[in-house]
Amino acid sequence: MKPVAALVWLMLLPVGSVVAAEEEGIDWLLTYDGKALPGADWTAVGSPKATVEPEGLRLVDDDAGFSYFQAPWQADPRLETVVEATVRVVSQTGSQKTKTASSLWPWRDGAPVSVLVSDGRHQEGLVLFANQAASHTDRFIPMDTSNRFHTYRLILHGKDMEMWVDGKRQVTGQGAFWKPAESSAPFIRFGSSAKVATGTAVWASVRLGVRKPAGPLATDPVTVKVGEPWDIPREAVRQTRPYLYDMGHGLLLMSVAQGPDAFYEPYGLLKSTDAGKSWTPIPGLDQKDTTPLPVLRRPDGSILAMSRWTRTRPDGAVFGITTTLDRNAETFTQVENRIVLPQRYTNESEGDQIICERHVWNDPDGGVTMVLWSRKRVPLPDGRLTTARFSHLVRSLDEGKTWHYVSTIGPGGEPAVVRLSETEQTAVIRGDRNSRMKQMFSQDAGKTWSDPVELEVGKVLPDLVLMSNGVLACSYGRPASCLMFSLDQGKTWTSHHVISDKVGFNYTSIREISPGRLLFVHDAPQLNARFIEVERAR
User: How many domains does the chain have?
Assistant: First the structure.
């Protein structure tokens, strides 16, 4: 900033703001105060519907077009970049008329209320929904963005991007400033980049500055090498939402959805004997709503598997299908099973559903423990109905013919559970409407669970693998397909990686198929896989 311009700008700020800026050592290179249309530093892209109001600049995106203001700046990789915006969201719609406002994949769809910053090497930013502030990829802050003006701050250092709201850090942001820049010219932009979604916001201020880092850039404790992907094709059948299983002895199985994302959609069970390079459907277990999803190698070499979907009898009993396959997954038999949950969770009306999820394991006493979740319509105090989702553990002592309740892991569906020791377990559950995934811990082999802890990332179908090198891996998706790693059994997640930002369902699955090597499968834009080498960096 030129000395005279800097002096004028400082004179316009409240005294407290000047002191705070000096204390933080920030050199503000670009500022916009919302009191007039953006000036000479800023270029309008599109035709902004912008009016200046007492509170700030009202920007309206009410059609299929979009517009924003953009300014260049000089980046210095030795310095931290600080981006700050004070803004209130007025309204917003989603990318599809039938979807909610949070149904955006911002890198594909754009966003009606957003800030995007590039340092010429990487770019990321802030997307504001009515019920959350988020990065363009996978970090989420549940909050009301429309109740009043909030000040959002992004602190960029290397590939990290902290996210602050009203002076409090809400996201640590390791690896969040990840996406390769679309050009080598640094820029900042604010407004709408949405292709379909619409929205209105009032911008009180936007500014960008730099400062000396408080310390050296943290190193990633995990070294990750991502291999080239290969497709998993299937003629005339769209395969999505993969669930991987390693049966040992060179046999991999994978259950995949083959329908429209609805109750009782068909699934297929596929097998691979070449480390996931090619897959073939198992005859009789393809394109059926009774196809098993969780599968388990039993001590006698047979394979036990349960159908994803369950059905409710008129007397309220819940039944599914148990499949027993031979050791090579070539032949099978099927019987009905019964699942018994407490009345609070069991099915009572049409639309209620108990869903068998991906993780299942052998117990020392010869029994089997399985993860499932319940989806049940329950009344609110005002008489309206809502859907309550809870994740549970159940056990069988008769080869999957009956399943009895063990515990409730926590609220939410699509759970992933991993055993860390004979007594320790951790679970990660899909993010609810606020998008953040939740994590729970058990110290007594799953009998009781800690209160949920909100993670800063989200949001759908997490998968967990404790690798042979002690690294705990978690895959998750939407709006990208991602991996994160922990070196302390899930207490902290200190290594985050976007594997692909291509768009689909963005459901993921992982298995360690050899020491240090993950097979990573996801469905964006179609079912594909790749190898990922994972090593501890220290």
Answer: 2
